[in-house]
Amino acid sequence: MTMGKLVLVLGAQGVGKSVVIQEAIKKVKEQYITVNFGDVVSEIIREKGIGNDRDKFRREAKLDFFKEIQLEAARRIAEMTKEKNVIITSHAVMYRKSGFFPGFPSYLLEILKPVAIVIIYSKPDEIEARRRRDREAGKELDRTRDTVPMEIIKQEQEYSIYITFAYAMFTGCCVKIIENPEGRLESAVDELVDALENLD
Known about the structure:
Layout: E1 6-10, H1 17-24, E2 32-36, H2 37-47, H3 54-60, H4 63-80, E3 85-90, E4 93-96, E5 99-102, H5 106-112, E6 116-121, H6 124-136, H7 150-171, E7 174-179, H8 185-197
Parallel strand pairs: 1-3, 1-6, 2-3, 6-7
Antiparallel strand pairs: 4-5
């Protein structure tokens, strides 16, 4: 049986990952399903009776237990690739109380085996404006997302690009960097379509 392909599409909250992916998979020849890694983590912590707030869990859970949940999420998603092509959307880095933590350490990459990694970025002021619009619109009321200054958003994006190339060293796959500026969604979508249709 032919295994499906798994692609990581990473970026900070507010870069527009979900919209870019939704539009891109309408255009590609092969079918993909999109899985939010954090949603799978949420499902697991609910099953374990820990609650619904994955942001609080990410910030406050003991690191060993946090890793255990990450591993379970990766195993569940890897199972999906036995039948389908999968795009995982998530963050390249995440913020814990002790500092920045890689979204996909080597122990997750060994399970997931991505064939490509895409990172989407935007200008920090555009990200901050999108986050503010989401808060004002009352989106995701069941979550307690981080409210961070512009400088931290800038750092997160810089670190995300750096660490994504470290992920490529572990996996041996290519990295595609896509800018998603305000008002130019179609350009970002076309770049993602090109990446998905030209996988090595």
